[in-house]
């Protein structure tokens, strides 16, 4: 796959929807193939949550997006817990059905939001990776949507004034520029594969991951979901 360094200077409103559609086609069949016991597995990236809890949170977030329900405190820990509790009596299949609908329908709403909801699409893809990791699936934070993820990362980090980083990726032909140059410090440098870069930006840690280098920036500075 190829991601040129500077092609993401303008927001692509259709990109988040494409990412969610690819994830729908990858994740939903996997979930429908798993036994009920797998939904009770703990998710390491979300302490205290099971696979079922993460899926309920994700399906609720997407449904809220489609229905434009963003009351005060939405997506706070308390709001997330309420969303999960509201689905506690649902069969797993109903949660997966809601997730599938959300992954299908949210892209159009996100496209119209002018960028305000683009991060939600990335967050949902990351949670899908959390679930895949809990299920023992290989390439939890990689897969067919990775080019879209890298493009969205480039756009989000630039628009949010994130620390500048130049990434030379083992599995991408062209270097990737992320963040926004401040003039106060030189860009950091990442050498490694794309999935490891995504893990750093998602705050998922790299324990047990070898073969990458990060210089001029701390891993914690890259986390898009901190704070």
Features:
7% strand, 227 residues
Q: Could you give a short account of the major beta sheet?
A: 4 strands, mixed
Number of helices, where a helix is a run of at least 4 consecutive DSSP H or I residues: 8
Mean pLDDT: 92
Please state the structural category. Answer: alpha+beta
How far the N terminus sits from the C terminus, by CA atoms, comes to 32 Å
Topology pattern, helix = H, strand = E? HHHHHHEEEHEH
Name the poorly predicted regions. Answer: 1-8
Gross geometry:
globular
Strand content: 5-15%
Number of strands: 4
Strand-helix topology:
Blueprint: H1 15-32, H2 51-67, H3 77-86, H4 92-112, H5 118-134, H6 146-159, E1 165-169, E2 176-178, E3 188-192, H7 194-202, E4 213-215, H8 219-222
Parallel strand pairs: 1-3
Antiparallel strand pairs: 1-2, 3-4
Helix pairs in contact: 1-4, 1-5, 1-6, 2-3, 2-4, 2-5, 5-6, 6-7
State the gist of this model.
The chain has helices at residues 15-32, 51-67, 77-86, 92-112, 118-134, 146-159, 194-202, 219-222; strands at residues 165-169, 176-178, 188-192, 213-215.
Structure notes:
It is a single chain. The protein has 227 residues and is an alpha+beta fold. Helix content is 48%, strand content 7%. It has eight helices and four strands, in the order H-H-H-H-H-H-E-E-E-H-E-H. It has helices spanning 15-32, 51-67, 77-86, 92-112, 118-134, 146-159, 194-202, 219-222, and strands spanning 165-169, 176-178, 188-192, 213-215. It has a four-stranded mixed sheet. A hairpin with a 6-residue loop joins strand 1 (165-169) and strand 2 (176-178). Helix 2 (51-67) packs antiparallel against helix 5. The two termini are 32 Å apart. Mean pLDDT is 92; it is low at 1-8.
